[in-house]
């Protein structure tokens, strides 16, 4: 801003002060030359020297000064720590492993006595792990009604975590729940002959007297002992599975 500009600004300020004084009711007439001169003398005089001093205080930095200021840089992404690489999940390999697990149950003779433990993934992990371990030792199979969250991938992964290195068959068979009228888990079923299932109300069901079942959060050994005491016709088969369980 030049000295002439500052002078014009001073005149504008003078007029504003004059109008403000009139609005306050101190004067009810037009200002005289003496009034204007008095207001002008009361305003500070800004010279070119004052303007130069202000420019010096607020000057632009020189090129040399700018070169000494560190320039922000983009981070080197390649130098950042990288998470450990994880191999993609091979769903095909997992499914093949699952097929080999359930193949054992399918290969068993249908007329042989079968011990099936009906479970649900909503059961506590500790209970599931215990029953899977007992089923592996006794030669029993595990039956599940459906998939985890409707996903085959999630179900297979959960099954593999559950069985670990144990040799046990796990079947996803909702019809088996209907065949043995299973309404809660865990349920333990000892059947003499799976091949004698018959049509029953639009589904396949096992005839009365062909199997014995018990439910409750108990061990497999307790369930077999219960069957031995309360179903003498199945005592021999129950004892055979108990001997396998005890090793």
What is the H-and-E element order?
A: HHHHHEHEHEHEEEEHH
Shape: rod-shaped
Would you count the extended β strands for me? 7
Q: Can you tell me the CATH class of the largest domain?
A: Alpha Beta
Beta-strand share of residues? 5-15%
How many domains? The number is 2
Individual helix count:
10
CATH architecture title of the largest domain: 3-Layer(aba) Sandwich
Distance between the termini: 102 Å
Our Rg estimate from Cα atoms comes to 46 Å
CATH topology of the largest domain: Glutaredoxin
Which regions have little confidence, pLDDT < 50, spanning 5+ residues?
A: 6-27, 100-108
Strand order of the largest sheet: 3-2-1-4-7
In round numbers, the mean pLDDT is: 76
Q: Tell me roughly what share of residues is in helical segments.
A: 40-55%
Category by helix and strand content: alpha/beta
Question: What's the gist of this structure?
Answer:
The protein is an alpha/beta fold and 247 residues long.
Architecture overview:
With 247 residues, the protein is an alpha/beta fold. The chain folds into 2 domains: 3-68, no CATH class; 95-246, Glutaredoxin (3-Layer(aba) Sandwich), CATH 3.40.30. It has helices at residues 3-23, 33-42, 48-57, 63-67, 91-107, 125-138, 152-163, 174-179, 220-230, 235-246; strands spanning 114-119, 141-144, 169-172, 187-191, 198-200, 203-205, 211-215. The strands form 2 sheets. A 5-stranded mixed beta sheet has the order 3-2-1-4-7. It has a two-stranded antiparallel ribbon with strand order 5-6. Helix 5 (91-107) crosses helix 7 (152-163), helix 6 packs across helix 10 and helix 9 runs antiparallel to helix 10 (235-246). The N and C termini lie far apart (102 Å).
């Amino acid at each position: 801003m030049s000295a002439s500009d500052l002078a014009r600004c001073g005149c504008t300020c003078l007029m504003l002060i004059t109008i403000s004084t009139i609005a306050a009711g101190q004067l009810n007439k037009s200002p005289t030359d003496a009034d204007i001169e008095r207001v002008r003398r009361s305003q500070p005089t800004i010279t070119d020297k004052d303007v130069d001093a202000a420019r010096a205080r607020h000057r632009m930095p020189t090129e040399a000064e700018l070169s000494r200021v560190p320039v922000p840089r983009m981070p080197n992404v390649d130098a950042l720590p990288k998470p450990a690489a994880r191999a993609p999940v091979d769903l095909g390999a997992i499914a093949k492993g699952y097929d080999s697990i359930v193949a054992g149950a399918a290969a068993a003779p249908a007329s042989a006595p079968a011990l099936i433990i009906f479970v649900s993934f909503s059961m506590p992990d500790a209970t599931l792990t215990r029953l899977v371990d007992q089923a592996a030792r006794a030669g029993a199979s595990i039956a599940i009604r459906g998939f985890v969250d409707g996903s085959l991938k999630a179900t297979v992964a959960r099954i593999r975590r559950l069985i670990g290195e144990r040799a046990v068959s796990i079947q996803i068979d909702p019809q088996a729940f209907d065949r043995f009228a299973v309404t809660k888990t865990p349920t333990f079923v000892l059947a003499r002959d799976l091949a004698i299932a018959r049509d029953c109300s639009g589904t396949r069901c096992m005839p009365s007297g062909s199997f014995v079942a018990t439910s409750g959060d108990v061990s497999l050994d307790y369930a077999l002992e219960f069957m031995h005491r309360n179903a003498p016709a199945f005592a021999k088969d129950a004892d055979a599975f108990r001997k396998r369980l005890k090793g």
